[in-house]
Amino acid sequence: RTTMKSLRFISAEAFVSNAEFARKSLGAVAHDLFPLLFKASYLLEQGEVIHDLVENWPLFDFNMGKLLGATLDYQEDLSHRTCSVCLESCLTGLRDYVLNQSSPYMKKLKVVDLTGIKDVEVQFCKCKKTMGRWARTQLLSKLCSELLVYLQQAQCNPGTFEISINVLIDLFVTERNYELVVQALLKKCSCPLKICCVAFRSDNLTLQKFFYIINLIDASLLRKLEIVHNVHLEMEHLEMLFNSIHFPLLTSLTLPARTFNVRRFTATDEQMLTNIGEKMSEMTQLTELSMSFSILTGRIQKLLSPLKTPLKMLDVSNCSLNHADMAFLANSFHANHLEALDLSGHDIPGLYPSTFSKLLSHCSSVLRSLTLEDCNIQDTHVNMLILGLSPCQKLQEFKFIGNPLSSQALKHLFTSLCELPMLKNVEFPVPRDCYPIGMTYPIDDASLCRFDHQKYERVAEELNLILFQANREDVKASTPLFGSYDAAVQETNNELGAYLIKSFKETLEKFTISFNKMS
Fold first, then answer.
1. pLDDT tens across 446-503, in order?
2. CA distance 220 to 70
3. pTM of the shown model
4. Which of 1, 301, 312, 427 has the fewest CB within 10 Å, making it most exposed?
5. What domains appear along the chain, each with residue ranges and CATH number?
6. Its family (predicted)?
7. pLDDT tens digits, residue range 127-149?
8. DSSP per position, 142-158
9. CA 263 from centroid of its chain's CA atoms
10. Measured distance CA(153)–CA(130) in Å, rounded
């Protein structure tokens, strides 16, 4: 698909395509043409031109999302291109903006917004090298520290110290870049580039380090908080976090696995859960909540009923919900507002089929994403599922891998999915009849790939043919056996793997010591 370009944009491309000429001529370029030239340079991956445009930026703000998004001159959105050449040039250009004393433009820049960059699986940039959220966090922190060292050592123009630019960014901190980010945050007051964290994700951090760094961030600006892999945050720590820090603008909260475990609850724990619910109710902007792999049986109402704002996204996958939990969700004021819902890991047809249908009917007018992985949905339940999905006319994404469905049932389901006008992405299971007879569900990781691959390919072709014949080639259908693409995990998987091996080794050593003592 070719996107139309205006004559202005074509001219801008021609101008920046000769990097040497463009860089020499920037001094004569009108201020209002800088955004146009920036997008053209980004499209053509002209790193040197990008650097010089940012170094001499003549405007009050620099918003990556707006600059790279759809414009009248060029409709294509480039904000999902996390091209390493472009982004590194952009950030080093920002550092040199502060240092450049001979720029012909008066320094007006006050706000740089890097939050509009989207990390996606497929990249179209020529260099084929991406700079993900973790690497952007790393580079910006490094540049801030280097900038401060340089300013302290060099003879700079006094005006340089008066420059103050708020840099809005989604930080991603792990053990590996922790020290660098901490140093940049500690020196924020002295540095002309001031890191303003709008979204914060932490993986592979000790609790001590997590609490230290979260206190360095200005929580009044934070909109999204993700505490994900290998941060051993439990309920008492969450209560401590909410008691010590106020999050007035928080819209999205992701908690790590096993934050809650009601199976070992005491009276004190019940009170703690009540306190957490009340603290969350003070977060009046909160609309997205993810609590997967916690054990929350019978406690959903206690946690969610105090909330004053309806949730638009709820992930309670593998949370051992019972009928009372599902009944609360179906009848709560959240149900009519849920745009994204994940109930994976629950035996929906066996435990609460009618309550689930009620929940689905309540959110059908707004639901955009539904995930029902490993929910024991079998051939006999397909008609019920079709009935529930048919009113969901805004549904864009449906994921249901890990369910024991035959190829015949999948074809029946796909025929009805073609009727959903907004649908764009379907993740379907390997058909049950592709696995050896007697395979039990949920399938363990070791057996996941032991299916007839040729038969699966034939079935996948037939399913795509159903989409093709219904003129629904816009729908992407796939079977990601080990889960959907996660940009953050993809970027840090080496560190994540090393952490898991280290944890396994420590557990093994403890077991060996205990065993030897017993012997």
1. 899 999 999 999 999 999 999 999 999 999 999 998 877 777 777 887 776 665 556 5
2. 30
3. 0.92
4. 1
5. 7-131 (no CATH), 339-483 (3.80.10)
6. Belongs to the PRAME family. LRRC14 subfamily.
7. 778 999 999 999 999 999 999 98
8. HHHHHHHHHHHHS---G
9. 30
10. 33
